Amino acid sequence: MAASVPALAFVAGPTRAARTAKAQLEKRYGMVSPAEAEIIVALGGDGLMLQTLHGNLGRQTPIFGMNLGTVGFLMNQYRAAGLPARIRQARHVSLTPLRMVATNGRGGRHEAIAINEVSLLRSSRQTARIAVAVDGNMRIPDLYCDGALVATAAGSTAYNLSAHGPILPLGAGLLALTPINAFRPRRWRGALLPRASKVEFTILEAKKRPVAAAADSVEIANVSKVVVTEATDIELTLLFDPEHDLEERILKEQFEP
User: Fold this and answer.
1) 46 assigned to active site
2) In terms of residue numbers, what domain contains 75?
3) Is 111 in a helix, a strand, or coil?
4) In a domain, 193, yes or no
5) Is 107 exposed, middle or buried (0-12, 13-18, 19+ CB in 10 A)?
6) Could you say which of 46, 135, 233, 245 is catalytic?
7) For each of the chain's 257 residues, which pLDDT tens digit applies?
8) Where residue 63 sits, what CATH number does that domain have?
9) Do residue 88 and residue 32 come from a single domain?
10) Which of 75, 80, 160, 249 qualifies as a FRET site for 107, CA 20 to 30 Å off?
C-alpha cells in the first residue's frame, strides 16, 4: 500500500520561479491552508523561510524549505518529484528563537521574536554608547560602537558572522554576543553566553546618540533599553534532507576558506 501524502501547504517567494513551482506542486500533491497543514513547504530563499517561521509561531507546524532564492542556507534543494518521501525521511531540527523586549524613549514597550538575531544599530552619525549587562551583572559599562547583536546558533552564520562573530554549532547551547565595529573597548570581540542568559542593553545618551533595535525584520526606533532572552515557550521545527543537514552545514562553515 502506498504511503499517504501528508496535508501540505505551499508558500512561495515573490519570484516567478517560486510562484510557478507553487502552482505545479499544488496540482501534483494537493494543498490545504497553512492553518490546516501537517507540513508547510516554503519555496524561495532564506528570507521567505524566516517570514514563514514568523508566520507559524503560533502553530509551530514543521517546515520543509526548497531553495528557489539566492542563498538558501536554511533550504533544501528544489526537486518536484518524490516530495512526500523526502518529507518522511527528513531530519527534524528544533530551533528556539529569542524574545526581544524593547523600551523606547517615551516608555513604550515593544516585544518581538527573533529567529536569527536581535541587533542594535546607531541611527545617526554619532557613535552609539551602550551599557551591556548579563544576568544582572554589568559587563561593559560603556561600549562605544556602531551597535551590537545577540545571535542564536541558527543565526550565527548570518549577520553575526558578517560582524566577525563566532559560528555556533546547533547543539552547543550558546548565544553569541557580538559588537558591531566596537571603538571602545577596542579589543573587545564579543562573548559566548549560555543560552539561558538574559542580556540587557541600556542606551547611554539616547537623545544625542539614537539607537534602533531589530528582531529579525521587526525594527523599533529610538530605544532606551533592550532585554534579550531565549523564548523557551516557542519551539520551531525545520525539516532537512539527510544529505543537507543544517547542523552539518553550520559546522562546515567553520572550515570554509
Assistant:
1) yes
2) 8-95+235-253
3) strand
4) yes
5) exposed
6) 46
7) 345 778 999 999 999 999 999 999 999 999 999 999 999 999 999 999 999 999 999 888 999 999 998 878 889 999 999 999 999 999 999 999 999 999 998 888 999 999 999 999 999 999 999 999 999 999 999 999 999 999 999 999 999 999 999 999 888 899 999 999 999 998 899 999 999 999 999 999 999 999 999 999 899 999 999 999 999 999 999 999 998 778 888 888 888 76
8) 3.40.50.10330
9) yes
10) 160
